[in-house]
Amino acid sequence: EHKAQLDEDFDEVRVEEMEEAWNKALQMQEEFRKGLVVEGPHTMNWELKKPPVLRPGANLTKLLDVGERKVASWRQVGLELYHKARVAIVIFSGGMDSRIGEGLPKGTMDIGLLSHKSIFQLYIERVRRLQHLVYRKYRHTTHIPVYIMCNRLNRHVIEVFFRENEFFGMREQDLMLFTQGMAPMVNR
Predict the structure, then answer these.
(1) Taking 90 as the threshold, does the pLDDT of residue 187 lie above it?
(2) 161 to 88, 107, 146: CA distances (angstroms)
């Protein structure tokens, strides 16, 4: 079964993309050797009359550096987008625990909070709170879709976890699991 899956994975590999990624990684490695430093995130200035221009790489906004009126405006637009069902939430959960030692998806584990809540439970509670805020503003029930990216090894565990916990009060049809693609590891 594993051999058949591995064969299928290799059939799906886009050689040109793999080669391009490999060459880019080698180029970055060479730049590190030369002492070139990767540029950190760019802090965006929202106090200008025009919105800041996105720069290549990471662009960072510190909410504490943004005026209250602008934050309120963003919050209004965000709630409106949820109300109009124009956005969803995506959670990336492709990895498995390798350091803690339980071998489970990190989102399903008790992470040591006094409440013993898992990361997934905390996320879903926040989504339900968002739904409530949208309802309070628009007096209309809103269901926010949540997509969780899994891998072949953890998808079943995550699905069972949500079923056992009755989706933490969320509608089952609003939670969609999808499986990330796999690519072979390469070295020199």
Answers:
(1) no
(2) 21, 10, 15
